[in-house]
Amino acid sequence: MQAERLDRVQVFALLAVLGGLLLPHAERLPSWLLAVLALLFGWRLLLQYKQWRMPPKWLLLPLTFALTVGVFFEFRTLFGRTGGIALLAMLIGAKLLETRGRRDALLLVYLGYFLVVTNFLFEQSIAMGIYLGLMVLAITALLVGWHTLGGWTGQPRQALAQLRLAGTLMLQALPVMAVLFVFFPRIEGPLWRLPQDRNAARPGLSDSMAPGSFSKMGQDDSVAFRVSFNGEGPSQDLLYWRGPVFDHYDGRVWTQGPSGLAAEGVIQGRGQPLDYVLTLEAHQRPWLLALDMPASVPPQARLSEQYQLVGRRIVDKRLRLELQAWRDYQVGQIESPLQLERALQLPEQGNPRARQVAAGWRSLPPAERVNQALRFFGSQGLQYTLEPPLYGQQSVDEFVFAGKQGFCEHFAGAFVFMLRAAGVPARVVGGYQGGEQNGDYLIVRQADAHAWTEVWLDGVGWRRVDPTFEVAPERIREGLASAVGAEELPYLMRLDNNLIKRVQLLLDSAVNGWNQWVIGYTPERQRQLLRRLGIDDLLSGRFIAYFLGGLFGLLAIVAASLLWMARPPRRDPARQAWERFCRKLAARGVEIGPAEAPSDFARRARQALPEQANQIDAIVQAYLGVRYGQGEDVAQLWQRVRAFRA
Amino acid sequence: MSAFLSTVLSPLTRRWQRWLQSRHPVARVQKLTQQRVYIFLSRSGLAFCAMLLAMLGGAINYDLALAYLLVFLLAAMAVVSIFHTFRNLLGLQIAAGRVEPCFAGEAARFELLLENGSTLARQNIVLSYDAAQAELDVPAQDAARAWISLPAAQRGWLSAPRLRIASHWPLGVFQAWSYAYLGQRVLVYPRPEAEAPPLPGAAEGVGEGVVTARGQDDFAGLRPFQRGDSPRHVAWKAAARDEGLMVKEFHGEASLALWLDWDALPPRMAQEERLARLCAWVLAAHAGGLSFGLSLPGQRLPPEHGDAQRDACLAALALHGIREDA
Question: Where are the transmembrane segments (chain B) (predicted)?
């Protein structure tokens, strides 16, 4: 059977499943590679339909080599994510051309399972999970078909039976899978890291602030992070999610200066800190986001001198952070001269009008200068818009005195520029502001990106000041959607609460649950959950008892029910009587054959024991009568069998 | 080295064989009980495990929750499949069926019967005698039969080796198997000489070498019934007197009877050559519908017609010089 040739339906099923598994990779592979892959699949299909001979080895080997070289030149590597997948796809294509029999096909079926994992490298969404779950069902059905006599012959009934068996196996495996998923000790990856694995930058905050860098994000409704508060969350206008702090200005771009670690206890909070969980999407940057001001530092992070949470490594996967925030705090009352000096840095020249206006405020005390600046911004007739004009070299002057249209980065940048010119230490803080409540959690999207400022006042420390608030207070109180025209916004950010939006929000809460409980089940999450079960140590007897107990308990249930179904049926009394009769005859040397019908057996027995022929006849008649329902009762059969003298 | 290994291993192998035999006593009918069904990873199951490990490495390295989920799902499915594979064999009853004798150099056929008393259909059961195997499904509460052919190299008794009953179904990751010593054996007739000379009678005239013959003309007495005897010759009156089945014997027409005589063959022929020629002649005589007898050293089969005579002669040739229970 192993050497059996694949028939048309089997080849088609195999190609369909492999094709379905490679399909999501299509967007990641170059078009020449896709064309070659389609060619190889088509070739194999044609071979089957035309009954042509398989290509010989001397053709296949150079072909495989050429494909490998091609992949190498495209990706400059054969490993890593995309290069590795391209190579795998090519090898599968080449293998197809020498797949004649079941043994080769079995290898391809196993590779099918492996292809499922390669898809997870790029996407672990619910939809992808469902799609690949169905593909696993299909692969398993193929595997079952491979081991069933006659295989997958293309008869719908047989195919359906194999799919059903595959599904049954998967369902029976689910409880054991769940126990393994929860209890199997998780190890913090990575075991190895290839330089190619780093993803390209994703949309999100960038590590510098140039004009337009925030307004561009206003069009992007993808999720930046989700937050669930323990208890009541703060009001919308207090939701300042602190990200990178920009304190260096070169006349056009704001960048982050070098930053050391914050001293212990530099943030003094009052009252009860707010507990919340923030699930940050991967953004390929080192910083994390936290509600102003962080009250604790999670183990994955450090606190910078600018009170910014920075991850220990680049956030290249979704991160679940348990955080605390002070709503009422005082920070940086005693600031180092170096920090203050950096908060006053300005380029040598540029924006003369802004400098001139700011110089006029120098006579006021520092706190008054800030108020004066806010009043100034409020009185200039500035407009808050997602589509500001592009400003040139003197961007502050052009924005404040000429164009008057800007987004938050223009407001924050110009505000800090003027305060610094007026001699008040100030800096730009990037991050997100607000968020959308969805059930018991908050969705913060890329479009919620915001920039605000921080000023340092003697005796007070750093204070948050948001110049955008002066111009467009509804942006801060009610969110972006109320501050700009609806047509400027991405669809999901608009305020009208229509059906599609509600469905989207419903889906998002499913996604959130999925992210929290399935995707986000990390080593820390496992430790937490186990701690709640009273397990502190993976080596403790309690853990082993829970883990193995759960595992073997479930397996025992599965095994018992499966074996129970295979038990022999309870023998009916007629059969028992008949067997007793057979034993009696066997003692006389007349043995029933393994597949002998009772009537044939009776005929032999009559010949061998002619003097008991009548008795034998009566017993056989009674037995057949009971068996085939002609009125004879079992008691009579038993009576006759007992009366029979061997 | 190999000599050393064999001295160390052969007692172990013998012990192993003895242990197996004690667990699986020789019987024509054998039931696959729980103690007799073994299960372990198959070869493709090892590949499956290697693949799972590779996938687990990927899941850890790239921290892919869904890859973890898949690895655990596949592992759990493999474990669950243990019970499916195991119960696929469990409770089956295997019995030795008929055998088909053959000539040396051909394949002898053994029939095996599988009975499934349970309400669960059994899938893809593989029966094998060494390398020869047969596959079959056994429907629920039904029986199925399979024939296995074994090459027969030598004349004499061919005993079937240990029967292996195995199943990979449904996933092929695990293999369940059991053994049965059914004691099946089949008679292998000598290989008939390829281009044997014509029958001695035909060449040298009818009647040559014929001494006496038993035929169907004159009643000669009673002898016990044998397989192949015509029912017309059964002495039914004797049977009615409870003397067992007897067959009436007659003196036949001497001129039609033919003796195939070992001693009449050229003296320089070796034993196996003689057997081969006699075998070819027996077949030729039977095909020609002749009544013939066979004379071997120490054994004489009086002339007779028919299939029973042919079989008796072939058996005598097959076992010539071989102890009956060898």
Answer: 37-60, 66-86
